[in-house]
Every structure is written in structure tokens, then in C-alpha cells.
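Inputs:
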Amino acid sequence: MRLVKNKIEYNGGGSVTLIPEEPEDMWHAYNLIVPGDLLYATALRRVTTTAATGSTSSQRVRLTLEIRVKNLDFDPQNSQLHVSGQIVNETQHTKVGQHHTLDLELNRQFTLEKGSGPNSEGSGWDSVAVEALKDAVDEGGNRRAEAVAVVMQEGLAHICFIGQFRTILKQKVEMSVPRKRAGGSDHDKTMTKFYQTTLDTLLRHLEFNTSSTSMSTTDPVRPVLLASPGFTAASFQKHIQSVANTSTPALKRLLPSIVVVHSASGHLHSLTEVLQSPTVKALLSDTKHARETKLMDDFSTELRKETNKATYGPREVEHAVDQGAVGRGGGVLIISNRLFRSQDVAERKKWVALVDRVRDTEGGEVRVLSSEHESGKRLDGLGGIAALLTFPINDEDVGEDSE
Amino acid sequence: MSRHRVKAVSYDEDDYDEYDEDDDGYDSQDPEEKEFLEECTREVLSQLAAGVPSVSASRGEAQEALWHYYNDVEKSVNYLRGKKTKETGKKKPTAALTAKPKGITGKETLFCVSRLVCFVSSYPLPPTTVSSHPSHFPAAQFFRDSPWLNIPAHRKADILVEQLYPRLGLLGGAPEGGGGKMSKLAALAAARKKEGDKTPTSPTTAIDKAQPSASEYKGAPLSLRERLAGSGKQARPSEDSPSLPGLGKGPRCGHPLSQKRTSLEPKTPTPAAVTEPDASARGEQTHDQEKPPTVNVRAPPSTFAATIIGVDTRSKMTELSHLYTNTLDLIRIYGQDLAEPFDFAGPSPDDVVLNAQSSAKGFKSKQPASKPQGDKKDQASLTGDMDSLGLAEKIHVKSKNLDVLSEYKKFKRKNAMNFVVIGHVDAGKSTLMGRLLADLKAVDQRALDKYRREAEKIGKGSFALAWVLDQGSEERARGVTIDIAMSKFETENTIFTIVDSPGHRDFVPNMIAGASQADFAVLVIDSSIGNYESGLKGQTKEHALLVRSMGVQRIIVAVNKMDTVQWDKDRFEEIEQQVSAFLTTAGFQAKNISFVPCSGISGDNVTRRSEDLNVSWYAGGTLIDELEATEPYLHALDKPLRMTIGDVFRGGIQQPLSVSGRIDSGSLQIGDQILTMPSGETATIRSLEVDGGPTEWAVAGQNVVLNLANIDPIHLRSGDVVCHASAPIPNITSFSCKVLAFDHLLPSMVDIHRGRLHVPGRITRLTAILDKGSGNVLKKKPKIVPPGAVARLVVEMDHAVPLEAPTRIVLRAGGDTVAAGLLERT
């Protein structure tokens, strides 16, 4: 995402103008825009005009609309963001108060204005929003820790793209594979077919050029992680090799970037294990993802020790913060950015206040995890919020309150 | 007019204002005017009454006349008198409708419009009422009480566009009544008509009959063509028109009814009528003789309707003639029977076709009463035909409707038992089973020799026996069992089915699938130094726990590879002690655990007692003895059918689609309709095999192969559940379960296993930690469940999965079994 204009004011109001440049930027936009904000972007709107005779004609008009955001809809698969709300600027074709859904597009700039002050509807540029903006703009330029992972088992393969902030399941390949039996070769035949289907699907998603002329191109190939229990991934690699040697020589370009790792199953959540494997860690050095995964591991180890030095769940964590346990000397608040996307502005404000308090007052560490990542999903399973504490807290009573 | 003084007002606007004002004056007279009009009216009426001949006129007529003559009393009186005198000569009083004064000037257009409105609104009201207030009757007022779009029939009328000139007047058709001279052509036509009148075939009486009504139409100016067309028609009232005085002085106001009557006869090709009057006239004569004259006062249908319905009604249509002739010509040209009026009494064209078809087939279903039946038959046969045309031919398998349970009781056969072989990887499970099969002659020597040769070729001679069960090319190449393998052998009174399961941790899901089909288990332990210890930490433990939580009660521990430790008694006892201690804690009862020292590779103590002197200390039975000592297991035969599909495969050319598995409960037979879940597709059992032999039925506990028909293989996957449609298994997305935790449990992602079924899911809630013995709640909503505790959890899945309580499930995460237990509630 490119930051074109930054007019954030000290009081938390102001606007920024951004240009999304790649699909993942839509994800950032999704995290930045909250209901109540003003969004100014170009839009295609179907305008229906009624002539004096009563006949109607409609046409599509490109307008620049400013809407007060009411709702956001993010399609993770295609990285599309639809923002709906009421129009606040009057144009030739629209009236104030009409509803419109803006579809943010790549390489088209949009301006996001957040109000501040007591009477504004939005939450303003709070610390979390500014943090999210920093993430989105990527000032350091150390992005591109991208990889493609194929998590598979016999008859099942998940092709997913691992980005810095999220993991997208691109496609699931499923095939019924007959079991081995005496005298039958159906199993081997079907497995070959399964490998071929998976390879075709993978190449399609990689947009890999398989023509023989592409041998000379020097496009960088993203690392491809093949993960499976047993020998499926290794067999798949062998299959790719044999295809490269026989029919599709262009695949030879792909071969060096293939890494075979172990996973416990072919289901998508085994990706966690894949990303923890030493080979992959070396490959995707110090990405946000690896850090997040490590954090979640630390948390669950701490929880397993049953020292009461780790807790999870909204109420429990708030209780711990109140006790001052998430502070200097190892207190870590782990929070999923799903909580900040709440439709309810008051709720978002609550979580932002908690984050600010831990960071500024208590002196603890705050980690915002992407809910589209495997670690974020693990955190979401725990209620979206967890904390490593500096001293043990017995929160039995908190649990009882809820009964 | 104040607005006139405004300089900025444009000329156009001025005009418009004036126009407006006029309009206003027209609509509502001011009191002064009214008074004046009243005065004049009185004057006119009195003059009319006084004059000779004395006539009486209504106030309305008088006022109208005054209006027309700009309140000139004298002219009005003259006009009215003339009119009334004429009227008295006729049977029906005609309105002053057609009496249009000539001196209409600036208001001409407006006036015409108002007249038009009057016509529209008046028809078919008596003309007098209309003519009394022709100009003071706005359309809106008239329609005031009419419901929108639901106008009563008597209020309906056609809007007629008045013609500016007499119809076809250029051709010399001046109206006779108008004082104009008849053209030569018209005269000729009149002459011909008179001739026609004299023809004896003409129904002269009709003229008389039509006479009274004819007066209704006399106000219309007749065009030449109309007269020509009508010339041959004695019945037509319009032919009397020459005798009628042309009240229609105002050529603009065509009377609707008269126009209707004067429109063309549909079957007359008009161009022909114009160009060849003679021919057409003759044609008309003959034509009209067949038709009795009718007077139709109904409202005419629209052009569109007329086109659709046919010509008969079109004859009454009011239409501009040029348009009209076009449509007519077209119909003529195409020579279709569209012109025929269509009453819906006869059979529809479709029915005609169907009838023809059915009669061709030998049906006699012409009678209307039997027609629906015939149709049904036809439809049925048609759909039948369509079905038979389908690509996938429906296979009907006749069910014998056996009472499977009583058949089963009658049928005496050997006990059948499944056992699963479990143990750590490389414990020698497959080899031991291979030895068992080889020694029991379940595998012939030739095949065994072949395996041995091939195994030696790739340098794995010791794996030869394992190849009996490890059929997969990958399994052989790597020397490790990947998937379960089933093989059966018989002893004197029992048929055993071996389910050989993989020992590698990556293939535990397959092992769970195998264990779910087993009645009891054989745990193979590698007794060699080091391997035993690593095995105990590894899958030995996990497998034992799994089979126990899958419901297996009895376990036989085969302490394998005893030859590598020289049949050391101490070693055996050490293992026995440790393993039995562990198994007891895992929940096996001591009486259900037995230990056998054996060697798979040499075959000692497998089927025969070892002759090795070192084994003399062992007094117990061989492995096969222990197997036979196992009590047969009882299955739920009378419960609804449940069978987890273990494999979907192509059984051969005769059996394109087969599924195998073990029936968990219930029974089935050939011809049964089965339902596969979660797809919800039905299939028919074409044939079935139990333990490799074809039978007609199967019951719970048997390993069956079902050859299916009428289902697409994409709906079948291993792990699906086969059931009967009468008692289907529900597809669920979340359930509550009571589990024994093997590891720390947090709300997290897990794999859910139930037999072959293997789906991703997540623990969403830790409901409670329970007491192991009593099942009482120890702690509600725990943060974490420690290993070894019994807990109640809520598990959710992304996709609907066929599961029902009570079912034994296993939860795994990250390649480890984290919990196993019972699904309590869905």
C-alpha cells in the first residue's frame, strides 16, 4: 500500500490517502476501515433516469463518492473489499443519504477519514489504527516473505498462499483413492492422477508459465512447500520431477524451490506444523508469521505448565490486566485484530483502550495477531485474546461469575 | 390581465395565458355570462314555441345552439327549428351532435377536442344526453366514478380520431345528403347496387329489419370505398345511406357506430375492391348470400385482438382502412386459417396431434371423456421413453425381501471375528501375520516364493513375509506398512479376519480405521534390546490406548522377535510385567490380557509350539491358540443399518463400483436401497460379498463388499456412512463429547476420527472436567484440561459429518492423539 497523503491530526482526526497495490493491501484496508469512517473513492454506480415520458434508462457512471461506512465485507479468497454506507457528498447523480457499496480496487486511490472528538461517530486514529496503517504501508519495505504451501495426504490437498499477514486457502483438491488390494493397480493409478491434478491446480494458482519458451525467463519462483504425513509429499515431488523430465521441461525452473516437509495430516490446520519446521523457518526468516507462531507456542507451553501465568478469554485477560499482571517484565498481551474490526464502535474502543493501557501504563508488550493466519486462528479459538502474565493469577472467581 | 403588463413575459407565454383564459372561460362561465345565456335561452325557447311550425326544444339544445351561434338568438332559433323539423320526420331524435356550425374560428382546435371528448364519453349513452352538454362535459368528470382499469362495459368506448376530410372524398364520394353531386363512379356503384337489390336471392326482408337500426348510422359520411364494399350487401344498413340526409355536415365528427358499420368486410380484398369494383361486388354478392345480416352494437376489439382472434369479429372493427387492408392482405396471402374464429370448444392443436399419435398407436381416445386418461398414458409413456433414452440406465435389482435376522439364525456358520494387529513401527506386525497366513496355508507356497525372490532382489529378504499383506508398491519399496490390509484365514471353528495396521505415527489415522473394525487386538511388541523401550514410548502405548478407547476389550500381546534375545525368560517377564501394568491402567481387564512369546520370522509359537530348547519354560498356548480362545463378540443386529465405507473401488468389469467395509449395526440384503451420508445419495445394492463369497444378505459384524448401482462414484468417499433411508444417520456440525485427555486440551484445532472418517474440526469449549469414576463435574469451564483427566468438550466441524451418539471418536492434533472418548450429544 502506498501512502499518498497523510493528514492525521494530533487530536486523532484527519485523513489518509492510500493506493492499494497488491491483494494483501485489501486485507490491510479491511483492518483500517471501521464503521463510522468516511471513505472517499471512485465508484461505478448505475444511474437510472426517468424521462418526462416516463421511460427509464440506466447507465453506469463513474463517480467519486464519499460514504459514511456502515458495513464491511471482505472476501478473503479473492481479496476483495466491499464497503457499504451512506453517501455524504452530493453529485449530479446521487443524493445525500443514498446507500452505496464501494468496491475498492487495486491501484485506485482512496481517502479514509476518521473523525475524532466526543461527538464523532468513528473512533479516530487511535494507536491500533496507526499501527495498522504502519503495517499496511510497510515503510521498511521488508515484505515479500511469501510462499506457497501444499498440505496433502492421500486423496486430499490444500493449496494455500502464505503471505506476511495472512494465509489464503486457494484451493482444495479432493479425490477418492481406492485402497491397495492384491492384484489391483487402481491405487497407484489413482494416486498418479491425484498428483497430476494437484500439480495442474498448483501451477494454475502460481500462474506458472509452462511453455518451453519460459525457460529463459528469470522470474523469481516463490518457495513451494510440500507437506504431508508419510510419503505423499515426497512422492508428489518425485511426480513433479518425472513430469519435468518427460513432458514439461519448463517445470525444471520450479524444482529448486520445492521443499518437502512433514505434517501430521493433510488438513489445513497442519500448516501450523509446517511453518514451525526448521527448514521453513530458515526459508521464511523472521516473518511476522514466524514470530506470531512462536508467541502462540510460548503461550501454550506456559499454559501447559499450569502455573497460572497464562490466561485467555476476554474476561480473564481484562481481569489480569486489572490486577496488573500484564506489565513490565514479561507481560504480553496477545490480541487478534478481529476484535478491532468489531462492528460496534464502543467495543473497538474498549479493546483499543486495553491495548493502550497495557502498552503505555502497564509497560507490557502488545502483539496484534492477524486473524487470517494460522496463529491468529489458534488465538481466535481461545476467544481472540490471551495474555502471558508476570505473576500467577488465580482467576477461578472470574470463571464462576459467568455462571 | 395583469400579466400582460409584465414586459419580461415572452410572447409565447402571452399566448399561452390567453389560451388558458379561454379555456377557463370555456369551462366555467362567470355569473354575468350565465345570466345572459339564461336570458337568451328563454328568448330562443319562446321564439321556437311561438314560431311556425312550432317546435319544442330542450333548454340544453337551446343553450348549445346559442353557444354555437355566439348567443345570436335569431340564428339559433332558425337552426333549432330546422333541426327539429327534420327530426320529427325521423323515428329517432338525433342530437345536435353533427350540427356543427361553420363559423368556428380561433377556438377550432379546442372545440374539436372537446367534441371528441364528448363522443368518447357519450357513447353508448343516448345521443341526446350528450348533445345537450357537448362542451361542458370534461372527460375527467365523466370518469370520476369509474374505477381505474375496471371500467364497466357500458362506459367503454373507442377513441376515434376524427378525420379532417371526408373519407376518400377526392375520389368523388361527396356525401349525398350534403347536397354535393354524386360522382360518376358513385353513381355507377349505386346503379349496380340497385341491380343487386333486384336479384331474387337477396333477402329483402333484412333491409326492412335493418331499417330501424339504420338510422343510428346515418350521421356518417360515407366513403366511396365503403359504399362500394357495401354495394353488394343488401343487409347492410349503410346501403341506405344515400337516402339519408347527411346530417354529418361537419365532416370531422365521424360517428363511432357508423364508422364501425362502414368498415370493410374482412373477406374482401380491398385493393381489388377499389380497382375492380365489379368483380368484387359480384364476389360480395355470392358471399353475402350465405350470411344473414346482423346488427352488432358491441364494442369492437382492437386491431391486435382482431388479428389474433380472427376476421369474423374484425368485420366490426373500426380502423383506418389502409392499416386494415394490410393485415387483411397478409392473411390472404399466407392463406392460413387464421381468419377462422376460434372457439375453444374443439380440441387444441396439441390434443389433435396427441390424438393422432395415440390413434396411430392403437389407442381410441378420441372421446373427450377419456381424453385426459389418454393424455396421462401418453405422458407416462413419453417419460418412460425419456428414461430409457437416458445415458445411465437405471438398474432394477429385485429384492427378495428376506427376513435377514431369521435367515441369520437359521444359518449356522463358523464364528467370524476381526482382529487388528497393532504395535510400534517395525515390531514385525506384518511379518508375524504373514507367517500366520503362510503356516495356515492361506497363502500358497508359490506366491510366497515369488515374494521371497522379489524381496531379495531389492535387498529386503526379511520382508518377504510382510509382502503377503503389504501389497502396495510404495509399501514394498519402503518396507513399511502404510494402509491397513485385510486378510482372512480359517481355523476349525472360526473365520478370522486380520486387519494389519501400520505402525508409523504418520499413519495412525489408518490404524484407527482398522481398529474400528476389530473385535479384539493383537499387540505386537518387539522384544529386542532398545526397540522395545523405544516402542513403549512410541506407538505401542498410543495404539493400545486407541484400541481401548475404540471399544476393544481383549488384547493378546505377542512378544515378537524372541529369537533375537535367545528366548530369554527374564526378558519376557519384564516385558509382560511392564506391559500388563500399562494395559491395566489403560482400562483393560487383567483376564482379557494374554502374553505369547513368539517369533514371526521363524514361526515359533505362532501356529506351532517352538521346538527350541530355550522356550521350554513357556507352558502357554501358541498365538493361534490364544486367538481361538477369544469369545465371539455380539453385534447389534436389530439396530438401524450403519456401515462405514472403508474403501471405494472398481471391483471389475462386472462391478464398476464397489464399496467395502464392516457393518457396524443392522443388516442388509441384495436389492436394498441404501443412503450414503453425508452426500445423501441413494444407491441400490446389486450384489454383495461377505468374506469374499457372494451371499444374499449380511449382518452386523461381517466384512462386506457391496456392489452398487444407480449412484455416481463422486458421491462416495471412504469414511462415508451407509444407512437405510428409513433410519438415516444425521449430518452434524457440532457435538458434545466426553473424552479422556491424552494431552493438554485447549480450545484448538483438532482432527476428528471415527473409523475411516477423518475430518478437521476444533474444540470450541471446554465444558467441564469430570470425575473418572463417577462422572460428576469436578470443575466447570476449565482453562485447560490436563492429560489423564476426563473432560466434556464441545467440538465443531466446518462441514456436516455423519455422526450420531453414541459413537467412539478420537481427537488428534499435530500428529498426536490428544483425546479419545464417546460422542454424547449432537
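Chain B has six domains: 18-155, 172-339, 349-379, 408-628, 642-724, 731-825. Flag for discussion at group meeting.
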